[in-house]
Amino acid sequence: MAKVSGEVMAEGTNRVIGRDAMRINIAIGYAVANIIKTTLGPKGMDKMLVSELGDIVITNDGATILEEMNVDHPAAKLMVEIAKTQDKEVGDGTTTAVVIAGNLLKKAGDLLDQSIHPTTIIKGYEIASKKADVLLETFSKDVKPTDTEILNKIALVSMGSKGIGSDDEKKKIAQMVVKAISQVATAGKGKNGGFEVDSDFIKIEKKAGGEVIDTELISGVLVDKEIVNSSMPKNIPNAKIALLDAALEIEKTETDAKIEITSPDQLDAYLQQEEKMLKTMVDKVKLSGATILFCQKGIDDIAQAHLAKEGIAAVRRVKKSDMEKLARATGAKVVSSVSELSSKDLGLAGLVEEKKVSGEAMVFVRNCKDPKSVTIFVRGGTDHVASEVERAIKDAIGSVGSAVESGKYVTGGGSIEMSLAAALNEYAVEIGGREQLAIQAFAESIESIPRTLAENAGMDSIDAIVALRNKHKGGKGTTFGVNVFKGEISDMEALGVLEPAKVKKQAISSATETTRLILRIDDIIASRGGRGGGMPPGGPGGAEMGGDY
Ligand code: ADP
Ligand code: MG
Known about the structure:
Elements: H1 2-8, E1 14-17, H2 18-37, E2 47-50, E3 56-59, H3 62-69, H4 74-89, H5 94-113, H6 118-139, E4 141-142, H7 148-159, H8 167-184, E5 185-186, E6 196-197, E7 202-208, E8 216-218, E9 221-223, E10 235-244, H9 264-288, E11 292-295, H10 301-309, E12 313-315, H11 320-330, E13 334-335, E14 347-357, E15 360-366, E16 374-380, H12 383-406, E17 408-411, H13 415-431, H14 433-446, H15 448-456, H16 461-471, E18 480-483, E19 488-491, H17 492-495, E20 498-500, H18 501-519, E21 523-526, H19 542-545
Parallel strand pairs: 7-16, 10-11, 10-13, 11-12
Antiparallel strand pairs: 1-21, 2-3, 4-17, 5-6, 8-16, 9-15, 10-14, 14-15, 17-20, 18-19
The structure holds adenosine-5'-diphosphate and magnesium ion.
Adenosine-5'-diphosphate binds next to helix 5 and helix 15.
């Protein structure tokens, strides 16, 4: 075998076959999970990550940690993928997913030791994962966008482990996120006629400075631009908003089309003509009744002067994405030629104002009526603080958003995992055979969540699991989990530790999926340079290249 491969493959190719390959992948997957498990839960610790260039990130966010770690081994990369998928699909529960996957791998290793074939393990895991889905459904409860109390709790729990300051700050931010989600949620558009939450329309704008408590929800859009001309109004109550995606300029003549100007009179006439055209454009804006114009392209100086004279404010070179958000927030229509602009294209905002924030002018479009697009303006003493607040907000948006979309929530603190594990153990006995062992291993892997929460809270994790197993005996589902603050077992419903069902569902399914992928590998063939070793030292762009491997 080795001889054949030696002939087929290029010199220097590294190859690991069969159980050895599997053992390596299992060990590495478990190692990755072990690195980040200390961050799980409100009592989890933060990690400080230092890049090759010396940039520092301090975070508790599983996805961020794994991304910044720049792992090298293919199996480790698969683990990182779990976090990425989880982040993309539901926006929270990344650490949970990776920790479960790591434990599924480790338990698979134990089963391999008992001479159970990988296909049997995979089959058992798949049966268990399917069953877990069904069970999750039966253990979850309904939630609507108007259930603000439940949603506030879900938001708080998802931000829980981020070190972003006081309880009051967290509460305020949680409420902001829930309000923001309820603004952008559309009824009847989601799966099964439920709600659809397009979180792209919750704009997060971050600026270091101020304090976390200054973070605010703007019922409208914050545009990181200034009012283009200093003699324009800077404070416009009851603003009538025009959105234009064309330039307020005269198109410059093509380079090869020459204009013959032979006398000063002709030049004058030409310039007058240009000014007249710009004036006509501005008149159009005025005629529409607009009091502020957001232009995606440029605005000529002369046009600016005319606008200012008419008391109309203007912002130029607004990003396309911001134009869409402005349209959704104010009800304005984006018009692609100023000649088409009419009063019915205008949007409304209670107030548009330019304000200096940490020395930089920004335009706040506020107090829109029932805006379908809102902004959370993140503040924090330093960039590190503001960034961690931003990550916390993103987690909360993901969490509350998926709760609203799927309309289901469960209790956290490891309680739902204990319920699932207990019910799966009952189920394993029904299935019997060798798969039974794999299903039991699956159940134990899910228990890694309450176990880790207890560990991170400084509790005796064995005692905690035993106590929880007693509470969950029979597998009918109870809401008892780990009270990480008191170091005891308590009712998570009463404590308000609530989480969206979808986060758990996604975590379990992507962990199972990746475990299956890794367990099916019985051959690692690595070409030389295929593991990062072949990068030219210090070559240009080397730092960015690292991520692409
Ligand atoms: P993840 O990246 O998986 O979301 P977190 O660090 O956010 O990881 O931790 C989430 C876990 O912490 C969940 O199992 C959740 O139920 C638990 N948790 C959050 N808040 C509490 C709390 N107040 N008491 C107990 N468990 C909590
Ligand atoms: Mg979380």
